Amino acid sequence: MSDINKVLVAGANGYIAMWVIRYLLEQGYSVRGTVRDELKMAVVVDSFPGHISKGSLEVVVAADATEQGAYDMAVRDVDAVIHAATPVLFSDGEPEEMIRPARDGTINLLNSILSCGTPVQRVILTSSVASIFRISLEQNEGQIEPRQPRKLTEDDWNEESLALCDMLGVNAPPLDKYMAGKIIAEKAARDFIKVHKDQITWDVVSLHPSWVFGGTEMIQPAVRPCTDPAHMNLSSKLWFDAVFTDTKAEHLGNSSGGWVDVRDVALAHVRALQRMEAGGLFRSTKSPSSGMTSVSVLMKDPTPHPRFNIQIIVDQIANKLKPTLPALLHPIAPPRPDILSQYFYEYSNDKARDILGIKFRTKEETVRDTFEEWAKYGI
């Protein structure tokens, strides 16, 4: 889609969004980013001072994305929108506390695009495999007998988390509340398109990364480094806590899910804007006019992967690479032979490779690059 010139990135100060902005700017796009307050604005502005001074990047405040009209000014005169503002939170409260920001933020953005008559051609939604994954696939992880991993695709829906939230309410697991927010936001976008299909002149691509790692220092001067583990985003802090002995959380031994390098996720967002064939249908439902495409964005290795077990990273990669890794302030956790390494499910990333042309980094590349970043900044 060569006629896209100006892109709105909602949630511009986020971990993925900052890399998206970097790649957009490097490829010559003009970018407008939204943030929730002046402090977050400063993070983005200070990370790209040259582009701010040239006018190729501007940052505006959209304080409350759940308020109707929050994005009305931000969407004006942009050719494409990337919605990366979904909160990553885990709450002990009612499920609606997680669901409402994800759902209403998405719908308010789509409403602003529709009502403001902007020249938008494509919208990218940063979703998650949370809308695909089903916890029942791991309920028998303790079994000894090997079995063929279940392959999940963009046509799968995680109905289990919705059912748990409906049944247990405030007592539902926090992770299921988060996943319910992702599912409902994506379904709300689909319903919005169906209702307004005669008015909409743009299409939507929904991207589904899983655990996102790497790029924590963001390579100055393009993006600010994170030099304090306490200030890392959720997935990077989880990774850090498991890899190092003195901060390792024992309960992370069986944490699982697909994983992908943040740089590949960011590139997928840019490619989804550029390739016409990325749009046009929502999951398996075709639309005669506009619609949605769902694309899983995950690593793919020769092994039955990607299932991310955080201790397997330590055992099979970090310790293996240890002799060639830079000196770090923290010792790498010792191997854990008791951790079950069988894969019970995997995600297909065929669309990301075939449609978006993503050549995913290997686990080893992400681990090595991350360690080099941490050594450089004394983490």
How many strands in all? 13
CATH architecture: 3-Layer(aba) Sandwich
What's the helix-strand series?
EHEHHEEHEEHHEEHEHEEEHEHH
Helix fraction, binned, reads 25-40%
pLDDT < 50 stretches: 281-290, 299-308
Strand order of the largest sheet: 3-2-1-4-5-7-12
Return the domain count: 1
| CATH hierarchy, class | Alpha Beta
Structural class: alpha/beta
Going by CATH, the homologous superfamily would be NAD(P)-binding Rossmann-like Domain
Describe this structure in words.
The chain has 379 residues and is α/β, with parallel strands linked by helices. The protein has one domain: Rossmann fold (3-Layer(aba) Sandwich). The chain is 35% helix and 14% strand. The protein is built from eleven helices and 13 strands. It has helices at 15-26, 38-47, 49-54, 96-115, 159-168, 174-195, 234-243, 262-274, 310-321, 350-354, 363-376; strands at residues 6-10, 30-35, 57-61, 80-83, 122-126, 150-152, 203-209, 211-213, 259-261, 281-282, 285-286, 292-297, 345-347. Helix 4 packs parallel to helix 6 and helix 5 crosses helix 6 (174-195). The chain starts with 5 loop residues before the first strand and ends with a helix. Residues 281-290 and 299-308 have low confidence and may be disordered.
